[in-house]
């Protein structure tokens, strides 16, 4: 779930970075986290709306866990030193929508889903989370840092896709819902 919310991935060693991390968004593309090109699936979609300067809004839709629970939220952030950064807050999760089997959760089910997500993300809430894309031999990975400290275990593959490419939200191959 954490990776889904962060939209990120790869290793900093010698891989070249991407100069303008939101250049694909400027062309109308959607950021796909943990893509499976054969199945045309992503764990998470991030749709960026560029604002003034290096600021942006991102609408995120993705799986929180492999039980099929989907979260939708909006966050604002900025590009800093070539990385896509935002601060995830309890307020963002508190305003998020959660969907299960195509039905938007309400009342007690919604409150429970929000609280589970807040509890899970508690160590990251209020911290600056950044993703720096790096090209490697197989594609692009997002390298994640939290409050400027690299957290390689949060890295994952990413891909920019077009609305018409036919991708859907699903867990990576081999992970059941």
Summarize this entry quickly:
With 177 residues, this protein is of the alpha+beta class. Helix content is 17%, strand content 40%.
Describe this structure in words.
With 177 residues, the protein is an alpha+beta fold. The protein has four helices and 13 strands. The chain has an eight-stranded antiparallel beta barrel. The two termini are 13 Å apart. Mean pLDDT is 88; it is low at 1-16.
Overview features:
177 residues, alpha+beta, eight-stranded antiparallel barrel, 4 helices, 40% strand
Record the SSE blueprint.
Layout: H1 2-6, H2 23-26, E1 30-33, E2 41-42, E3 44-50, E4 55-63, E5 70-80, E6 83-87, H3 90-95, E7 97-100, E8 103-104, H4 107-121, E9 128-136, E10 139-146, E11 149-150, E12 156-161, E13 168-169
Parallel strand pairs: 2-13
Antiparallel strand pairs: 1-3, 1-12, 3-4, 4-5, 5-6, 5-7, 6-9, 7-8, 9-10, 10-11, 10-12
């Amino acid at each position: 779930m954490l990776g889904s919310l962060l939209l990120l991935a790869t290793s900093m060693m010698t891989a070249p970075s991407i100069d303008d991390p939101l250049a694909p968004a400027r062309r109308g593309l959607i950021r796909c986290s943990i893509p499976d090109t054969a199945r045309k699936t992503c764990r998470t979609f991030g749709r960026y709306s560029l604002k003034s300067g290096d600021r942006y809004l991102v609408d995120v839709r993705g799986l929180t866990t492999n039980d099929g629970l989907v979260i939708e939220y909006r966050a604002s952030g900025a590009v800093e030193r070539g990385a896509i950064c935002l601060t995830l807050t309890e307020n963002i999760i508190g305003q998020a929508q959660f969907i299960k089997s195509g039905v938007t959760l309400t009342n007690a089910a919604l409150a429970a889903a929000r609280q589970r997500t807040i509890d899970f993300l508690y160590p990251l809430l209020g911290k600056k989370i950044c993703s720096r894309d790096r090209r490697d031999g197989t594609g692009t990975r997002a390298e994640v840092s939290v409050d400027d400290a690299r957290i390689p275990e949060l890295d994952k593959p990413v891909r920019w896709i077009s609305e018409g490419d036919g991708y859907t939200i699903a867990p990576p191959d081999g992970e059941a819902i």
